[in-house]
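During the reporting period the student researcher (J.K.) took over the structure-prediction task from the postdoctoral fellow and processed the backlog of single-chain submissions. One of the processed entries is reproduced below for the supervisory committee.
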Amino acid sequence: MMKICYTFICFFIYSTCFSQVRPTTNPVPKPITAPNLIPTGSKPINPPTEKERSQSNYLMNKFEEEEKRQQQIWNQFKTNNQASISSLNSLYPILELNPVNKSTDTISLSSIGEIKLMDMRADKLKIGFLPVQYELAKKGYTTLGVQFDKNLQKWLKENFIDQNISTDTNRIRQLIIVTQKFWFSNTAKERFTPRNPKLETTLFYDFDIFTHTENGYYPQKKIKGNITELYYNGNAFTSLTDSLLNLLKKTLSSTNFLNKEIESNWLSPNNFIEYYNTKIIRTTQLNKTPKGVYETYEDFLAKKRQGDSVDMVVKYTNYDHTAPIYACNIIAYQEGKYVPTNKSWGFFDGKTIFLNTGEGFFIKLTPSKEGYVFLHFKNIGEDKIKKYILDGIQIGDNQYQILKNYTAAFAFTFQLDLDNGKLY
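J.K. obtained the following structure tokens:
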């Protein structure tokens, strides 16, 4: 997977670097050394030769072929999941959404000649999980992923870029929009009542905005945050998407891109590739992490264990002990001495992550092809767990004692956010 992602990014970079390049007379600044997104300025890129232009066209065709291949994979994925419910170790069903962007307002980006999209999300097959209503859950559909009827990047292009943004094709400047996060999560701040359920949907988003000229890349904006609305039988998906598109339009229309195209804000193509490739490597090799307890998520990524051995002292199954383990309490040791774990981030047994949700109650996250998923929210309420433990459980941004009563109407699924190690 890492090799495929790296190749895909390379296609993108070469296709943008060698297209419509004009000579430059900028002064030669200092060379860049650090592979990160801290712009430090470097030598301008020379105009391409005819051979390089030919190579650029070849790579651009390859990039387009890769896009078509990804779309074919997505179409096959949809076909496979319409037949039956799959286990999490394969691919589970996906509910397709088709929110319509009704906005006809157009913003003009006169300094931009072309807009390109990059998808750097860890999970590209879905944009969240549906809070499955009870009647559907009874039929076995307790876990349903959510996706647009097209993949996210194609949906953004057709329903936002093509519909709401005009550019000047005579310009050589490209606007690069990198999607780092686009995820719908189930949240609640008030307790459930049958007559007035206050289930909420939160959209977490994170976009990096760059411009690209013949000289390289220039970081412009990071658009990151979250928006929350009442779920209202799924209406929140459309209204939240509308709100995000309006935010993107407002931000892009008010940005003077030329102001940040200066030497001190310069990034080479190699730096651009290196930054995103490093992120991919960090989150695609988690299964190679040593067994043990990890004090923080950063320690988990860095494979820095807390203690040298672990005992699982309490195993939670369900009230009659017939179900698999869904949570546990653990004790860690360092050279035979007790190491407190009540505040540790999590425990990894070589395959499965047990995430600490508060005061040492570690819940089991099931590994899937796209990440680690918590499937057993309802089990917590069916087990005999002491109140002081329940009071301390936090599932993402939700207090368990508030969200638990919603299981009378919904089945919930949460996934590990690989950016910060929390559930959403």
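The committee noted the following: The CA atoms of residues 210 and 219 lie 5 Å apart.
J.K. will present the remaining backlog at the next meeting.
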